[in-house]
Amino acid sequence: MTKARTTDVSTPVRFTGCLLGVALGDCLGAYWEGYPGSELAEAYYEGRFDPVNLRMSPWTDDTAMTTATAQSIIDCRGVDGPDLATKYLRWFESGGRGIGRATYHSMKRLQSGTAWDQVGQQGEYAAGNGVAMRIAPIGLLHTADLDGLEADCKTCGIITHRNDEALAAGVATAYAVAWAATDKLDIETLAVQLAAQLPPTRTADSILQAGQLAESKTPPLQAFPQLGLGGSAYQTMGTVIYCLMYWPRDPVKALVSAVVNGGDADTRAAIVGAICGANWGEEVWPDRWLAELPGAEGIRHLATQLYEVTTNYTPGTG
Ligand SMILES: [Mg+2]
Description:
With 318 residues, the chain is an all-alpha fold. The protein contains 16 helices and no strands. It has a single domain, classed as Orthogonal Bundle (ADP-ribosylglycohydrolase fold), CATH 1.10.4080.
């Protein structure tokens, strides 16, 4: 069994590890976003490229929208659609670095006065990874209780993506983070367990395909192109799950792999970072990365506040 038991990691350290993991994945991956990938990946797997030499970009949408989600949960003591929309809009109006197409059009509609639950993009162009990239704090909130996780993901997701694929990717990410932060992540069976939580979608199929590729030890340079390197929800979730399951005991290698294979590297790496950080805690991330990460102290503070809210959280059932 490759069960990633990490019982010596305290829950607050998992919260900081998760949010720092999002930012590390984003900042390391953003430097390589859109890069074809295979050359750098080949050099890395052959030991000709030391990941200590990875460069960091400033935050993009992944970190900015994740911290906005966390701040909203802290302020509202739970998931509140109008407040989330207000915080996303504030980020958009401050420049919205790295914004995706669906989020851009949703924010434009919000700006022009359309209601928060009616602005989200619909149709095939809304099947992106923009929900999954920002949803880790909802997974952390539901470490207290998984009840309501899916409803909260939907409340958050529809602000920008009224699309089953995008929402399924968000739910998958939130479950993985919640399981990891409560030490219930079984990486060996992760693909099957996650797919079981999702409606029939291309995203669920891609997660299962990723699990099969990892189990059959299909090497990354073959697996990544099969799963797809773009920013579609199914492509991102497939490559995320492959990274986790192919390197079940090596979260740094999983994160670096998410970065060096190119394509939508920052979002892929941000989600891998969220799940690995929640599972192994902040200590898993190399000191040099943390020292270089922009805004690391603020992220730690946010994670601590989110932990405090979570410990006093009772889902709104009844
Ligand atoms: Mg980004």
